[in-house]
Amino acid sequence: MTLPYLPRLVCLCLAAFFLVHLALGAIVSLIARPAVRMAASLRPRVAARCLLVLRLLPAAGAAFTVIAVCLPSYLWLEPDAPNERVAIGSLAVALLGIAAWGVSLFRGLRAAAGSRRFLRHCQQTGRLARLPQGHADAWIVDGAEPLLMLAGIVRPCLVISRGVLVALSAGQLSAALRHERAHWTSRDNLKRLCILLTPGILPFAGASRSLERGWREFTEWAADDRAVAGSVRRSPALATALVRVARMTAGPPPVPLAIPLLGDADQLAARVDRLLKPPRTQTSVPRPLLALVAALLMAGLLALPILQPAALHSVHQALERFTG
């Protein structure tokens, strides 16, 4: 099959992205579960960041390879021929790249649209009120479903059902609002959208789910720690708020881009235990974090020689053999 210059470039970039993403995804899949276990020795905030980096690393590395290596070698060394042959295998791999991006973009855009519809519904049916406990504005909605969550991406909003307002005391509501405020400060909804928009690490593999579940867990722990800030009064207040909202039969969030107070319900016992028995604070940078930073720096240094002209010639020859 023959293609013009620019369509051939697009086909090459998609195929290169898929292959590099597949290779990096295989590596991340091998270390995903050990990484989640090692992250437990880190502070929750640092652990969440490390797992987020691992989750996004295959897509980021593949995109860097395409932009910094494939595009320059093709545009610099490929002659502007009217039409040139492209192998069927290259087209097949490019289609896999399109499928990977298509699924992730559809998932992310659908979640963003659902979040927008949910906020519009809350604004139409609820009322905006100033909550003295958290010094923040929130949309108060009616309904049997207990809601206390942060929804939205660019300008996140607090959404609280009237039943939760009645069930929680002033101290408990204040601690819960501080928890949601911590998610707001960390831009956790935006990070969730980035995860949804990014292709999975490997098709039909559990590495993405393992890293995402670990990230959500440590994100909740980090928000809990930031909400209580070491206070002996806020810790039991937040723990009690979690239990009371859980007893109101709270289900999963109505939209993916919303962070409810409970988070993953199966982590409730662990969160309450942490709040009532705070872990010891680490004072030194743990070895897993140092190893991760060193690996990323090493990968960046190893990638620099690829950008040299001689290396681009070699890359171009390899691409020619692949597409031909």
Task: Give a structural overview.
By secondary structure, this protein is of the alpha+beta class. The protein has one domain. The chain has eleven helices and seven strands. The strands form two sheets. Strands 3-4-6-5-7 form a five-stranded mixed β-sheet, sandwiched between helices. The longest helix has 38 residues, at 88-125. The N and C termini lie close together (10 Å).
Topology of this protein?
Layout: E1 2-3, H1 5-39, H2 44-77, E2 84-85, H3 88-125, E3 127-131, E4 136-141, E5 148-151, E6 157-161, H4 162-167, H5 170-186, H6 188-197, H7 207-228, H8 234-247, E7 258-260, H9 268-276, H10 287-303, H11 309-323
Parallel strand pairs: 4-6
Antiparallel strand pairs: 1-2, 3-4, 5-6, 5-7
Helix pairs in contact: 1-2, 1-3, 1-7, 2-7, 2-11, 3-6, 5-7, 5-8, 8-9
Summarize the structure.
By secondary structure, this protein is an alpha+beta fold. It has helices at residues 5-39, 44-77, 88-125, 162-167, 170-186, 188-197, 207-228, 234-247, 268-276, 287-303, 309-323; strands spanning 2-3, 84-85, 127-131, 136-141, 148-151, 157-161, 258-260. The strands form 2 sheets. Strands 3-4-6-5-7 form a 5-stranded mixed β-sheet, sandwiched between helices. A two-stranded antiparallel sheet has the order 1-2.
